[in-house]
Amino acid sequence: MSQANLTHKEAQFRTDVLSLDSYHLNLDLSQARDHERTTYPVNARIEFSTTAPEIFLDYLGAEISNLSINGNPVDVDFHDGRIYLHDLPTGEEVTVEINSLSSYSRSGQGLHRMLDTADGNTYLYSHLEPSDARRIFPCFEQPDLKAKFHVKLSAPAEWEILANQPEVSRDSSGEVATVQFAPTPLLSTYLTSFAAGPYASKSRTWTAPDGSLTVDLRSFARASMADYLDDEILELTAQGMDFFHENFAYPYPWGKYDSIFVPEYNLGAMENPGLVTFTESYLFRSAPTRAQHAARTNTILHEMSHMWFGDLVTPQWWDDLWLKESFAEYMGADASVHATQYKEAWTNFAGSRKNWAYLQDQLPTTHPIKAVIPDVDAARQNFDGITYAKGAAALKQLVHYVGREEFYAGARDYFQAHAFGAATFDDLLNALRNHTDRDLEAWSNAWLKTSGPDTLTPEIRIQGDSIESLEIHATADEEVRPHRLSIALFDAHLHRTDTFDVDITAGSSTTAISEARGKPAPSLVLLNDGDHTYAKVRFDDNSLETVRTNLSQLTGGAEEELSRAVIWTALWNMTRDGKWPAKEFIATVLEHAPKEDSADLMGTNFANARYAVTHFLPEEQRDDARAEIAQTSWNLLTSADPGSDAQLTLARSTIATLTATPEESGTERLQEILNGAVTGLQLSPDLRWSIIRGLAARDALPLELLDQQRANDNTLTGEAEYLGAKHSFPTEENKRYIFDQLLIPKAYSNAEVLKLLGAFNAPRSASLSEVFAPEFFEVLSTIWEKHPIEIANHIVRGLYPQLEMALAATDEFLSADAVPGALRRVLLECQDTVRRNLHVQKVQKGQ
After folding, report:
1. Taking residues 673-680, what's their average pLDDT?
2. What region holds the Peptidase M1 membrane alanine aminopeptidase domain (predicted)?
């Protein structure tokens, strides 16, 4: 069935003519355990008024049995994802009632259903952003058309049955229970949420610090994962509720706060008010590092901030998607620092998350933070590094620009003015104007309506033993933005000697730092110390040499850790741009990353080094580099403190390097790790599977060992891991099988697709995969047309050839007029990645 792509123009028409009151939804999930049944009954009653007699509802259901308007049956006009309503009475209340069948999902869109192989239990959960509520019930699917939702769910009586609001009644009739939930406050369709199944749970009560409010907090997981539902989840939830209650000064408005951890999820989490969904990977089956705890904390607080920014006040249209996501990204880190033990949140943002923004912002498909979103499919593609990480970095710059308390004061005014409504960034700026004298209009235009990162480079002149002059040279694809940032000077022992708070005015190519004149000559000049702005940072020659040889000597505390994060990110940007030899970056990682106190910085930079070997070094240099990294990693792993974060981080990296090394020792050492030879290393299921995959990729895995691991991890996660490992053996038959299987629509869940793609691209078998490059372009249109867009996105990116021939082949494919815009964007990004890699490789050769 065609999936109509709602345009902004169509949405604006409905905004102008509709006044929406309520939805009354009844979903019958009582037969959900019968997996032969692919659909479930839905009754939807929608109450509204309109000034237009002709209008349409959005619906991607399987069929409609009857439709009535104000109690009168009418003919059903349902096609291409829309229900067309004709001859509606205008200027009065209208009630449309629809009985239909909706389809269960295996793609993570709509109402997802899965069977847990561990115990045979069935679980359901929904994910609807940006426009998949229409997969569950007929609706006006756009963010600004809010309504009250009256929800009933019928499901097996022994199941947990959940929605956005608290349960108010339960009618149990034999094996089936029908639960009525309290009506929601005004809510957008994409924020509705449903879940059902034999979920296990934990609970506690939160009371506001001022005693004004009490909220029930619960966390849920499927029964086979209940042991991993740890107490910290609800502790962090309570700490976040304290923080936002005090700083937003608007009482939590959604009744209850449930967090549900679900399998086969398409993304990290979703801010459904009262029933927040999280990927199950946040339930730690393996011993987690502190960095993993910090990342989960960030996500919990990110989603919680949405209860106000995004749920209470919702963007009018998806062109302001960035605002709610950037705001939540900022709040996730800021709340972590001020409300929890994970004070390193801004270090993790600067050292890893921000790399996503810099990468995305240098693609040909980059866009302004406030992008033009002509339709819903364009919105789907903008859940990217610009919308999240760059937007958050821009907000962090705004906070530094106007002041933290001033920013929060403006947010409080914004919530009060627009509660339960839809608003724009201009509305937020208007609220901020009451708390600052800064020119917010100029700031907004410079930061939100331009694309690409500025580049900041220091130029220092030394006279004798002191600074004669220090300048910042700024370049940009467009006009240089205004920046307020810190510059730090460090001595030979990498002690910070001076810090300057500097304003770079818009359009300025050179900014002189007059207060630096006469200061002692530094060993390191670090621009953007504290990571207050968003820009690529370069080094003068002396500073670069200092970093290369002495980076791990920059120690002392949280401030120095954040400085190291800024430095690591700058070095990686220089390497990606071909401005610093990849071999130098790799050597710097091997020398200094093992000494990192931050497991996040350690893990990120080891991963970047592995990427540099595979993609930035000329092919003839890669095997030697792989062997060197594998040997160094092994030495580091075997000498790491038993049971430490460093040991676990090194183990994960070492398994990857041993899988890729050309040396036979790679196989022997993987087997040693699997056999428990590394003292203090807990061999969790996830670590075991990574070793199993590595041995398979090296064609060194006995099949009985694979089957034994499958039996030991008889879970849904284990089944997906088994699928990936089974097909990681470097054979032509495996590559053929994977390629063909990925062409079959709905054959695999999103989790299984990712494991198959991992097997297709397993180390040491590139030559076997590369032969599929011409065929990929032949079946590309079919992949995109037959699969749900999220899975199609994974498959296209995963199968895209990392070969020079792909550049011309992509141009030829895109020369056709009928290429969908979303597919065009994916291909341009894949093509640019290959082009960048080839460019950097040529730089390494001196060409």
Report:
1. 96
2. 234-447
What pairing do the DSSP bridges indicate for beta strands 148-156 and 18-28?
parallel
Per this entry, what is the length of the chain? 847
State how far the Cα of 155 lies from the Cα of 179, in Å rounded to an integer. 8
Quote the longest CA-to-CA distance of the chain.
92
- Cα–Cα dist 96/211, whole Å: 43
Output the six-digit token pair for 43: 């009754």
pLDDT on residue 4: 83
Give start and end residues of each alpha helix (H) in 434-578. Answer: 440-448, 541-550, 558-576
Burial of 270 (0-12, 13-18, 19+ CB in 10 A): buried
Cross-strand partners of 527:
487
pLDDT tier at 816 (50, 70, 90 boundaries)? confident
If one looks up domain 453-567 in CATH, what number appears? 2.60.40.1910
Where in the chain do CATH 2.60.40.1730 domains reside?
1-197
Catalytic residue among 280, 303, 325, 344: 303
Task: Compute the 3-state secondary structure of the chain and give helix, strand, coil in percent, each to the nearest 5.
Answer: 45, 20, 30
Q: How far apart are CA 779 and CA 578, in angstroms?
A: 34
What are residue 613's phi and psi, to 5 degrees? -60, -50
Q: Which of 284, 361, 328 is nearest to 129 (CA)?
A: 328
Q: Can you tell me the distance from the alpha carbon of 24 to that of 127, in angstroms, rounded to the nearest whole number?
A: 19
What are the residues whose beta carbons fall under 8 Å from the beta carbon of 821, sequence distance 6 or more? 377, 378, 381
Q: Give the residue range(s) of CATH 1.10.390.10 domains in the chain.
A: 199-436
The amino acid present at 840, given as its one-letter code, is V
H helical segments located in 476-598: 541-550, 558-576, 582-592
How, if at all, do strands 421-423 and 313-315 pair?
parallel
pLDDT tens readout for residues 521-569 = 999 999 999 999 999 999 999 999 999 999 999 999 999 999 999 999 9
DSSP state of 375: B
Helix axes 558-576, 599-615, angle to 10 degrees: 10
- In eight-state DSSP terms, residue 521 is P
Q: Look at residue 161 and give its three-state secondary structure.
A: strand
Cα(324)–Cα(313) distance, rounded to whole angstroms?
Answer: 9
- What tokens does 114 get? 């899965």
Tens-digit pLDDT profile for residues 330-363? 999 999 999 999 999 999 999 999 999 999 999 9
% the chain with pLDDT above 70: 100
CATH homologous superfamily of 1-197: tricorn interacting facor f3 domain (2.60.40.1730)
Model confidence over 418-465: pLDDT tens digits?
Answer: 999 999 989 999 999 999 999 999 999 999 999 999 999 999 999 999
In degrees to the nearest 10, what's the CA dihedral of 551, 555, 560, 561? Answer: 80
Higher pLDDT, 310 or 380: 310
Of 366, 379, 360, 530, the closest CA to residue 8 belongs to 379
Please say whether the beta carbons of 525 and 457 come within 8 A: no
Kindly report the pTM of this predicted structure.
0.94
User: Does residue 259 contact residue 237 with C-beta atoms inside 8 Å?
Assistant: yes
Catalytic site residue 303? yes
Sign for the CA dihedral angle at 641, 645, 651, 657 comes to negative
Cβ neighbours for 290, distance < 8 A, ≥ 6 positions apart:
342, 599, 645
**Residue 390 burial class via C-beta count within 10 angstroms: exposed 0-12, middle 13-18, buried 19 and up:** buried
DSSP, res 187? B
What residue spans of 22-96 are helical by DSSP H?
A: none
> What are the C-alpha distances in Å from 674 to residues 285, 322, 536, 660, 708?
17, 44, 41, 17, 13
Which pair of tokens denotes residue 707? 């089957």
pLDDT for position 1? 35
